[in-house]
Write a structure and sequence with these properties.
- By secondary structure, this protein is mainly beta.
- The protein has a domain at 22-38 and 133-257: Beta Barrel (L,D-transpeptidase catalytic domain-like), CATH 2.40.440.
- The protein is built from one helix and 21 strands.
- The chain has one helix at 238-247, and strands at residues 18-20, 23-25, 59-64, 68-70, 72-74, 77-78, 84-86, 96-102, 106-110, 119-123, 127-132, 134-139, 144-149, 155-160, 163-164, 173-182, 193-200, 213-217, 228-230, 234-235, 253-257.
- The strands form six sheets. The chain has an eight-stranded mixed β-sheet, covered by helices on one side. It has a five-stranded antiparallel β-sheet with strand order 10-9-8-3-11, with no helix packed on it.
């Protein structure tokens, strides 16, 4: 059976946001959002609360190798709700997965999609594997982002950040970097870079044409850092986000804790 057009598929690519003029509209602007409640579902996909342990080479990442990546709920069983992903996404960004388990024919992966923490299996012959060296931790209460070397406690970067307001909190959980955008205008609201994270707001289903996805990004208001002021994204100085973009390529694990 021929697969339908990507326009008929759920918007579940590596970055589920709107790309306009080189800027991806994540869940963070200075204007107050118009919330759209998340739909109520009776079943929830499988979730995980762990990050895969790194090999000596680093954390395993899978990149889509062709125009389609089939998703499976278990090895050999097609994922009914989300049978496949188109690559690249509708924003032109490459599909990437965080690998949780390495099997003989399939990889168990974390997928960038609502609801947060979605897991699936992909065939190894539909992806290419690589490794990323570092991991990111965001501490919401401490208003702090840290980049660690591998699975160690060696700190490569630590900076003060702004996080979500009480009514639009930064979601907690285990995520990964699913896209990096360098912005031509580093004086805008998002600063110099957007480091997209595979997490979505639990309060806003959509936001200014985007899907309510969060990101780490720069800012043109460094005076607001250290405060719960955003719509869910994590803001930091332009220098800090430039360093994060260098240290954390796509696929890098991101843990957001209270």
């Amino acid at each position: 059976m021929q697969r339908p057009s990507a326009r008929l598929l759920p918007l579940i690519g590596a970055v589920l946001v709107l790309l306009v003029g080189g800027v991806i509209f994540f869940l963070d602007r200075d204007s107050d959002p118009k919330p759209v409640a998340a739909p109520v579902t009776t079943t929830a996909p499988r979730r995980t609360t762990t990050t895969a342990k790194p090999t000596p080479e680093g954390f395993m990442v899978a990149d889509a190798a062709g125009p389609i990546v089939d998703l499976y709920s278990s090895p050999g069983v097609a994922y009914a709700e989300k049978p496949w992903l188109d690559n690249p996404t509708h924003e032109g960004l490459a599909v990437v997965f965080e690998v949780l388990e390495d099997g003989p024919e399939y990889l168990k992966v974390r997928v960038s999609s609502r609801p947060n923490g979605l897991e699936a299996y992909v065939k190894k012959d539909q992806v290419s594997v690589r490794y990323v060296p570092n991991r990111i931790q965001v501490e919401v209460g401490a208003r702090r982002v840290t980049v660690f070397k591998g699975d160690t406690d060696e700190v490569l970067l630590q900076e003060t950040v702004a996080v979500g307001r009480d009514r639009t909190p930064t979601p907690l959980g285990h995520f990964f970097v699913d896209g990096i955008v360098t912005l031509a205008n580093d004086k805008g609201s998002y600063g110099s870079h957007q480091v997209s994270v595979s997490g979505f707001s639990e309060k806003l289903q959509s936001f200014q044409g985007g899907s309510g996805q969060i990101a780490l990004h720069g800012t043109n208001r460094p005076d607001l850092l250290g405060q719960p002021i955003s719509n869910g994204c994590v803001r930091m100085t332009n220098d800090a986000i430039s360093r994060v973009a260098f240290l954390a390529p796509t696929g890098t694990p991101v843990e957001i804790v209270a």
